[in-house]
Amino acid sequence: MKLFRTNDIHLVILDLMIPKISGEEVCKKIRTTSDVPIIMLTAKTNEDDRIEGLSIGADDYVLKPFSPRELVSRVKALLRRAYPNSRPVAEKLSFNNGDLEIEVDKMLVKKNNKNITLTTNEFKILLAFISHQNQVLSREQLIEFTFGEGYDGFDRTIDTHIKNIRYKIETNPKSPEYIHTIYGLGYKFTVEK
Questions:
Q1: Distances from the Cα of 84 to the Cα of 15, 37, 79, 88, 100, angstroms
Q2: Which letter, b or e, does each residue of 108-123 get, where b requires 16 or more Cβ atoms within 10 Å of its Cβ?
Q3: For the chain, percent helix, then strand, then coil, each to nearest 5?
Q4: Is the whole model's pTM more than 0.85, yes or no?
Q5: Which of 29, 68, 166, 187: disulfide with 173, CB 3.0–4.6 Å?
Q6: Helix (H) or strand (E) holding 48
Q7: Alpha carbons 57 and 174: distance in angstroms, whole number
Q8: Cβ atoms within 10 A of the Cβ of 96, count?
Q9: Does residue 99 contact residue 109 with C-beta atoms inside 8 Å?
Q10: Cβ(101)–Cβ(110) below 8 Å
Q11: Which of these, 111, 91, 113, lies nearest to 178 by C-alpha position?
């Protein structure tokens, strides 16, 4: 039984004291299909309990009571270790002296202060590029980052989405500033420093 698609969930915070099934059992089931990072939360202070939690697949173990700041710090540290090649995406981004602006939480994109309408998939692809600036991403990687493992469409669909994104965000789509084709490998998002 697959509990979730790994591309949809980047980290699990798992309380061990949940109804109907133990947190340890949930952790074991997750580990049968995914290596997503897991932080266990528990009031169990016994060293043997902590060791068992780590041995069944938890990446970190936080004892209750804990401060929200500590938990957030542990989440950030674990995400850095688990996804070392990903850059965190800020809430509001600006490129090339404001030529291109993106408000992530609002799914808002502006080109020269004019709102640009992107489809949900186009926006996800743009976020994948922004999270991996100056890195070449293959079509397969873009599909994985954007649509997840369960995607069963054609990899050339990415080309169509990128063509549409370029038309919307590039001053001259035939000579792009942002999304460059790296022939034989994929695409790369670059910006002026």
A1: 26, 13, 8, 10, 26
A2: ebbeeeeebebeebbb
A3: 35, 20, 45
A4: no
A5: 166
A6: helix 47-55
A7: 49
A8: 12
A9: no
A10: yes
A11: 111
Q: Are the C-beta atoms of residues 166 and 189 closer than 8 Å to each other? A: no
By C-alpha distance, which of 83, 106, 109 is closest to 98?
Answer: 109
DSSP 88-114: PPPSEEEETTTTEEEETTTTEEEETTE
Question: How many beta carbons lie within 10 A of that of residue 91, not counting itself?
Answer: 9
Distance CA 83, CA 111 (A): 30
Per DSSP bridges, beta strands 12-15 and 186-189 are unpaired
β 114-116/136-137 pair status: unpaired
Q: Give residue-wise pLDDT tens across range 131-186.
A: 888 889 998 888 887 776 666 667 778 899 999 999 999 999 999 999 999 999 99
Amino acid at 45: T
- Name the 3-class secondary structure at 12: strand
85-126 pLDDT, tens per residue?
665 555 788 888 888 999 887 889 999 999 999 998 899 899
Nearest CA-CA partner of 38 in 17, 22, 15:
15
